[in-house]
Amino acid sequence: MNNKFYITTTLPYINANPHIGYAREIIEADVLARFHRGKGDDVFFNTGVDEHGQKIYEKAKELESDPQKYCDEMAAKFDDLKEALNLSYDNFIRTTDASHVLAVQEFWKRCEKNGDIYKKNYKVKYCVGCELEKTDSELVDGKCPDHPNMELEIIEEENYFFRYSAFQEKLTELYKNNSAFVLPEKRFNEVKAFLERGLQDFSISRLKDKMPWGVPVPDDENQVIYVWFDALVNYISAIGWPEKTENFEKWWPAVQLCGKDNLRPQSAMWQAMLLAANLPPSAQIFVNGFITVNSQKMSKSLDNVISPYEMVEKFGIDGTRYLLLAGPNFGEDFDITWEKLIEKYNADLANGLGNLVSRVIKLAEGVKDKPKVRPLETKGRIFGEFSKLVEKLELGQSLEYIWKIIDEDNKFIGDNKPWELVKTNQEKFEEVMQKLLEDLNLISELLISFMPETSQKIKKALETKKLEEVLFQRIK
Predict the structure, then answer these.
(1) What domains does the chain contain, in order, with CATH numbers?
(2) Helix (H, G, I), strand (E, B), or coil: what is residue 264?
(3) What pLDDT, in 10s, does the model give residues 68-101?
(4) What string of DSSP letters covers 393-448?
(5) CB 42 within 8 A of CB 35
(6) Residues 105, 94: Cα–Cα separation, whole Å
C-alpha cells in the first residue's frame, strides 16, 4: 500500500495581487508534493485563497465593487500561478465555496456543542492588517509591529468567543509528544513561549451590520464568523470533511506550510480548534521566514512588491523556481534585489548548469561506448542524503547539494580537457565522459521536483545527444 501524503499551503488574502513571498511558499509545497509522488506516495496537494474578512470587504468598498465579484477576479490571478510557475496542486479551494461554508458552520456547531464557544461583551484593540486582536505587550509604540502604518481599531461589541484557555494543557502535551511538530526549531520555541504565557479566549465572530462579509454564524443572523476561524477549516473542508468521511480519514492529518507571521494561528489556534471539534491535530508545520527587498519587508506603500509574473517574464519558469528556492536555510529571512537575482541566475544557471549541460552534450557526440549505469549503492547513498534535506524542507541546502556536483563537473572538464582527449586518447576520453554523463543523468533526477522542465530537457538531451536549445542564457 502506498504512503499517503497531504500537503497544504496557507490561504493568502486576496486584497492584493500575488507576490513572491506566497510564490515561494507554494513552490516549496510543489517540490514536496512532486518529491513524494516520485517516491511512489499517494499525494494530495491543496492551496487556494482566503476571501472573507474586513480587509477584503474594505478593499471591495474602496473599488466600489461587490465583494464576491472582486473575489472572483482576484482568485483567478492566484489560480493562474498554476501555469505560470508549473505547479502540480490537486485542489484550489476558495473560502466562498459552498462546501467550505457548510463545513465551517458544522465545525462551529461541534465546538459549540462541546462547550468551547460562548458569547460575551468585550473591548479590544484590533489590527485589520493581521486580522488579529492585539494586547499592549504585542504593540510597539502603540502600533502593530507588522503593520505600523495602520491605525489599530477599537472593537467594542458582543461577540462569540472560543474557549482557547481550556486547551493550555492539551497543547502542552501535543508539543511535548511531537518534538518536530513545528520546524525550524526556533519557531517551535516561539510558540511554546507563547503558550507558557497563558492562553486567552478570543473572539470568533463579528457583528453583521458592521462587517457583513463572512460565513453566517449558525442560528444567529446578526453575526458572521471571524475570518481566521473560517479560513483554517479549509485544510479539512478541502478533503471532504464533514460529509466525505472516508476521504477525510484517508488524507488527514496534513503537513502545512506557513509564513512566520502565521505561526500562532497555524500551530496553536488551529490545533486547539481541532481538539475542540474532536479531530486529530495537524501532522507537521513548516514555518518560512520573510522575503525582503533591499532589506525592507515588501509593502505596497513602499512600492517594493515583486510579482512572480515579473520574475517569470525575466527568468523563465524554472529560473524563477530556482531563484526563490535557493535562498538561506529554511525559516530564515531572505533579502533580494533584482541585481542579486540576475547575478545568481547568471552564475548558477547560465554559467553553471547551462554551461555544463551544453559542454557535456556536445562532447557526447564523440562517445562510442554506451555509458555504464552507476552502481545502485552509490545512487542510493546520494538519494538518501538528498532526501533527508528535502524532507526537512531545507531546499536551499538541497540545491547546494546538486550545485556542488555541477561545480565539480565543470572543474573536472577544465582539468581533463576531453575535447583534446577525443583526438589523442579515446579510452581516457570514454572514461571521463562516463563520469560526466552519469553525473548529468543524476543531476536531472535530483532536479526533477525543483526544476521539472529543465530536468526533462536534460534527460531528452542525454537520450538524443543533442541539446535543442540553450537552457539558460546570460541576462544583463
Answers:
(1) 338-464 (1.10.730.10)
(2) helix
(3) 999 999 999 999 999 999 999 999 999 999 999 9
(4) T-HHHHHHHHHHHHHHHHHHHHHH-HHHHHHH-HHHHHHHHHHHHHHHHHHHHHHT
(5) no
(6) 15
